[in-house]
């Protein structure tokens, strides 16, 4: 709905660029139930956008629609102008959208390294015959893949690299979250969808997560779409926030505006909100 | 035309038998999402048990009981077979399936195959490898509608099956236990939270389903005059196709599916050899399996099942 | 130099001596049994006599040379193994417990095989093993369990410790060989003085007695070297090993207990060196030598009837290939295929039609039979490709189906295909089947359905190739994709795995190998007919995979052999024994027949399978020789050592439902 290259200023006054993802009048019905109705959303390159809303509002359904797990009943979803409707999840990934899941979906009985290697699936070219005969090209590719996986794990520091041979099921929750992100990063996405990335984390872990989410945008140039329940996170990290309720988008805008928006408060609480302190954009060292 | 109608009669009575067996499959699948491979063999055991019960009363293939004795004998054999099979089903569930309630899907499926193999060999050891003759004590008179012949046995089979199916339908829809069964089939945890004893309900489901298979075994023997240890697997697969055709988990669907499969099988024999080498008859297994595959691919919810939203 | 040698051999510290006794006895008893109670001595003597005077020997020179190679490999491997085991042992496990293990797992089976033949002997041994396991587990539950492995206990070794290990290995090899030499000398002298040993062999006895200790020294050293390769050195010199960008010691420290236990199996020193991966290399060498030279050894080991046995093993072989092929579909990719027999049938018929007169009947092209035989080799590939194509065709309808529905559809195909072959008799000759199918041709080899030896070697080659392919596939990008879709289809798709392609590849690969087995089968049998293929066969193939160990390559091989033995051999043998008044089976059989007339062992085949399947699924669903991954999947308990937050979802609860409900 907004023009393609209009300059928009985010909460820090930065200028962001071209449209990365555009949802136009997207609806999804399951039988009689409308999970998502007429949602419009524009995400620009380099933004961090949060989608918030009460339970059952349709946020994860929107993610599933974007990544091709569901197909929209009506409406269009375009990534850099190219329609994604009808594509299967692996095709959507190839086009440049990766995601994590609310209930972390790692391959539990594979090691950390193997999980990330699966994430590299689309980046590897090995054919069946090539694998059978261990053609030098394939050997080289596998070696490079492992090195790349170590790089990806290393984004979070040395801890995961050390534990690369551990089974995913044996990791702590926060570690599993990071492995899932590393796996998603493996496919070199342009847009990363994070579904409640700080769920189940305590304060310290949440701060860590906010830091690395920001680094994902700053260092890796990713555009990030976030579902979050913790308002402290969304307030502190988002360039813009979109609010869903009962499948519809009821508000969108800068964090401060959303915090004070009557409709949002009513949707969540039914009464005026108490003051909430947003997490600092640059947290003080402790 | 006569041929068509004749096959219709055949189809209806075999279909009724298939429907009875299909009910057991669909009930079990509806409640614990397991394809009970051994169900067909329970049916086979039922037919053997009926022969054994007859044997206890000294009835063999040549006997000709009359009147009250006839009715009494049939009741005893049928009910006895049903009871034995019902208990057999409960025992199987207890020993082989319950320990694997939480195991990955593969496990109970393979166990079911194992149980099926065991039952087959028990049948083989008990009554031998070849056809066992079933006392055809029901006086068989043939009625004619035009050129189409209908045997009294056909009618009996059909009636018995329909009576049992109606009884089942009433039980499931009108009684408390029936309601509990439907609840467990829909959402096991919620039912448990509502105070339903899930284990007991599952046992009851197996009891009823296997009991119906026992009845099916009895009337099968009456209709065909013989049975054999290997019949279970084969008929079981056909009945399972029927259950899927009607919509797995749906009782009316199983009944409908059974009749339909019976009709398909009957009409298949009419296919001329210009279309299929040797004509339709020797292909009827393949045709039924083809039907199964087509349903599962194009409409897995069956005729009466609900179209669940696309879940990858 | 000699000082060094003698110090390594003669001045032994106490614990080294303990180890030597422990392992010396453990290895000597079986070797002595093999050599003197069985045919080891006989083979050696025959080889030497035969080589010295070929004219008077019963055996031709090539056979003798093969036998000689086997003997060399056998004894050399055992000597090196002795060095490895002593070096690798951490010494923590009690001697008696080891001797008990050796007794149950080596000596008793050896005895049973000597007295009952290979298959029956192993069958009895298997029963004893099961009983032993059950009893041992009961005992273990009564005693407190041992503490889990910790990193410290892996004893990262420095230079001094490495030297100690090496000297132990050398001492082990030397003393083991020396003791064995002495025993052999004594026995041979007794034979000589009782007139059973030809004098000409005395020279050999002397040579052997002198050579063995020397060989022992060097082979022990070799074993030690192999053990040392698995030692974790600590980083005193900054020389720590780097694995994946991080040093090994650090890695081990951060691993969880279960994962550490897995790694510990491979590291030296070890609590259970018999089961370590290093020792497994030795076992593989022994097994390979045994299998490779078996046709030559069989007359020595088991007497007459070699040809029949070899033919049976040739048949067992295609079961192995079928199990490996099905393992790809069911084990790797997790797709339950109940109709695998369809592809086997297709493979059999393709070669059956092409490699016989049927081809001429159908196409009018007459090919010289000799040429047909030579064409077997390219046709195996073609057959397999055709089967793979059908794998794709028959797999395609199942792609959207859930596990049990997929099984039923495949079952349906498994039923339809044999019916098609039966009824399309214009092409397939219907119920009469096709006869006169050609065997392959190989220069210099006489090959027909009556010569089991070339078929035996052919199936060995095929099995080796199939194992090779399986391992490569499993460890490739595709193999990872298969595990991923088995674990979590949605996560796999979201990570870029194309579900359709990956599943179809699984079906195609599985069908490919079934096609290979089919071509072999038709060639060996010399014919093909529809009654050879039925649903029951698909069940048997599934049983092989399940009983052996789903997803585990060695597991399904063992499973195939076990199932084949039961199916084709053991029950028939039991029937033969049942009417033999001198065997113990006889009274058992008579007792059973009183209660169940019409009972034969052959009749209860399905009963046995059924009971085995149910028992395995309830008590050991991961199979006889499980893959590590599956055992974890099937017995997963709460993760040890992981911090679980209160908001952590319980493991295993990842459904689309969850995606939908919690928003």
Mean pLDDT of chain A: 86
Q: Helical element count of chain A?
A: 11
Q: Please give the number of β-strands of chain A.
A: 12
Please outline the major beta sheet of chain B.
2 strands, antiparallel
Shape of chain B: globular
Task: Report the CATH architecture of chain B.
Answer: Orthogonal Bundle
Main sheet overview of chain A: 6 strands, mixed
Number of E-state strands of chain B: 4
CATH class of chain B: Mainly Alpha
Helix and strand pattern of chain B? HHHHEEEHHHHEHHH
Question: Hey, which two chains have the biggest interface?
Answer: A-C, 70 and 60 residues
Give structural notes.
- The complex is a heterotrimer of chains A (286), B (312) and C (663).
- Chain A is 37% helix and 23% strand.
- Chain A is of the alpha/beta class and 286 residues long.
- In chain A, β3 (19-30) and β4 form a beta hairpin.
- Mean pLDDT of chain A is 86; it is low at 1-9, 11-15 and 279-286.
- With 312 residues, chain B is mainly alpha-helical.
- The longest helix of chain B is centred in the first third of the chain and has 31 residues, at 2-32.
- The N and C termini of chain B lie far apart (46 Å).
- In chain C, 71% of the residues lie in helices and 1% in strands.
- Chain C has helices at 2-9, 14-37, 40-52, 61-88, 95-116, 118-142, 159-193, 201-228, 248-254, 257-264, 277-302, 306-332, 341-354, 357-363, 369-374, 376-395, 403-423, 425-428, 452-474, 477-487, 489-494, 499-525, 535-548, 553-578, 585-595, 605-619, 628-634, 656-661, and strands at 242-243, 246-247, 434-435, 527-528.
- Chain C is globular, with a radius of gyration of 28 Å.
- Chains in contact: A-B, A-C, B-C.
- At the A-C interface, α1, α2, α3, α4 and α5 of A face α9, α10, α19, α20 and α21 of C.
Please outline the helices and strands.
The complex is a heterotrimer of chains A (286), B (312) and C (663).
Chain A: E1 8-9, E2 15-16, E3 19-30, E4 33-44, E5 48-52, H1 59-67, E6 74-79, E7 82-83, H2 89-95, E8 97-99, H3 112-119, H4 128-133, H5 136-154, H6 158-162, H7 173-185, E9 191-195, H8 203-220, E10 223-227, H9 231-237, E11 240-245, E12 248-253, H10 255-260, H11 262-268
Parallel strand pairs in A: 5-10, 5-11, 8-9, 9-10
Antiparallel strand pairs in A: 1-2, 3-4, 3-6, 6-7, 11-12
Helix pairs in contact in A: 3-7
Chain B: H1 2-32, H2 39-56, H3 67-97, H4 106-127, E1 132-133, E2 142-145, E3 148-151, H5 152-174, H6 176-186, H7 188-193, H8 198-224, E4 226-227, H9 231-246, H10 251-268, H11 284-298
Helix pairs in contact in B: 1-5, 1-8, 1-9, 1-10, 2-3, 2-4, 2-8, 2-9, 3-8, 5-6, 5-8, 6-8, 9-10, 9-11, 10-11
Chain C: H1 2-9, H2 14-37, H3 40-52, H4 61-88, H5 95-116, H6 118-142, H7 159-193, H8 201-228, E1 242-243, E2 246-247, H9 248-254, H10 257-264, H11 277-302, H12 306-332, H13 341-354, H14 357-363, H15 369-374, H16 376-395, H17 403-423, H18 425-428, E3 434-435, H19 452-474, H20 477-487, H21 489-494, H22 499-525, E4 527-528, H23 535-548, H24 553-578, H25 585-595, H26 605-619, H27 628-634, H28 656-661
Antiparallel strand pairs in C: 1-2, 3-4
Helix pairs in contact in C: 2-4, 2-5, 2-7, 3-4, 4-7, 4-8, 4-11, 5-6, 7-8, 12-19, 12-22, 12-23, 12-24, 13-16, 13-17, 13-22, 16-22, 19-22, 20-22, 23-24, 23-26
